[in-house]
Prior knowledge:
By secondary structure, the protein is mainly beta. The protein is built from two helices and nine strands, in the order αβββββββββα. The strands form two sheets. The chain has a six-stranded antiparallel β-sheet, covered by helices on one side. It has a three-stranded antiparallel β-sheet with strand order 6-5-8, with no helix packed on it. A hairpin with a 2-residue loop joins strand 5 (74-79) and strand 6. It is globular and about 50 Å long.
Amino acid sequence: MGSKSEKNQAQLIYLKPSEGRKYDMGPMKAIFKADGSETARKYSVSEWWLEPKTKGPGIHSHEEDDLFYVIEGTMSFFLKDKWVDAAQGAFIIAPAGVKHDFENRSSARAGLLNFSVPGDFEDNMPAIVEWFKEHPIERTDA
Length: 142
């Protein structure tokens, strides 16, 4: 136990539906399922839920690859230079450095599963939550 190879392995995790570390940003909420030492810093797994007619985090890019899978409803994604509507079951990869965003333009709640590679994205969440307290999320016009 405690060998170097074990420290480079992900932990065994079982979470029931809705379990995880929750971050409330008003009409946008995140639930982190695994990150950091739980994944040997290799990836981060989180759910993101947006209420109807809710803008997302805003167009941005970062050093991690983002993989998205729409688990409920329809999300609109900005990918590089255009918006696309992604229905339940859609899969998107936004490679590192590519500008992207997501928002819920529909009249129903929508959710996505996000994998961020490499991990440690959750370390940013307290600052992100604070930023959204100072800059409340807007509603979409669509």
